[in-house]
Amino acid sequence: MAIVLSSCAVAAGGVIVPTVTDAAAQGCYRDAYPPDGGTNIGGSPNRYKWNNSPYIGARYDRCNGYVYVIYGGYRATHYNVRWAAPGGPWEQGELSASKGLWSWPARHGDYNIMIQACNRGFLSSSKCTAWSPQLYLNTR
């Protein structure tokens, strides 16, 4: 059974994500990184990808207590997401292709997150890219 996830903080055709500003200097932000590598394509937060995967970036804002995941780079009908919350098992859900942002109130601990872009076929199963690099994000 697929879980459909929603994202928030979308306005005027774009996504609103905390950018590195004075708050970063005060220590509000912690960005995710891929322990197993991946190509850093820049951005704020940094986004990572493989040659045949969508990009993914994530940031913890400890000042407001939220995790933000940014994803994209493919024309897709949807994105599959796999994540493990602190102390929890791996879970899988589906994200909107049109949003590019998924956010939620953080629990303290370690998150692991990865995505893949997919296109639903007519009367057939989805065709998907490879999974993105797995990101690690500490929210303690």
Describe the structure.
The chain has 140 residues and is mainly beta. Helices cover 3% and strands 45% of the residues. The protein contains 1 helix and 13 strands. Strands 8, 9, 11, 12 and 13 form a 5-stranded antiparallel β-sheet that branches. A 4-stranded antiparallel β-sheet has the order 3-6-7-10, with no helix packed on it. It has a two-stranded antiparallel ribbon with strand order 1-2. Mean pLDDT is 86; it is low at 1-15.
Set out the fold topology.
Blueprint: E1 10-11, E2 14-15, H1 22-25, E3 29-31, E4 39-42, E5 47-49, E6 55-61, E7 66-72, E8 78-84, E9 90-96, E10 101-105, E11 110-119, E12 127-128, E13 135-138
Antiparallel strand pairs: 1-2, 3-6, 4-5, 6-7, 7-10, 8-9, 8-11, 11-12, 11-13
Number of E-state strands: 13
Give the SSE string: EEHEEEEEEEEEEE
Structural class: mainly beta
β-sheet strand percentage: over 45%
Helicity, as a percent range: under 10%
Distance between the termini: 31 Å
Average pLDDT: 86
Low-pLDDT windows of residues: 1-15
Shape by Cα distribution: globular
Number of helices: 1
Q: Report the C-alpha radius of gyration, rounded.
A: 15 Å
The major beta sheet can be summarized as: 5 strands, antiparallel
Provide the descriptors you would attach to this structure in a database record.
mainly beta; four-stranded antiparallel beta sheet; disordered N terminus; five-stranded antiparallel beta sheet; 140 residues; globular
Quick summary:
This protein is mostly beta strands and 140 residues long.
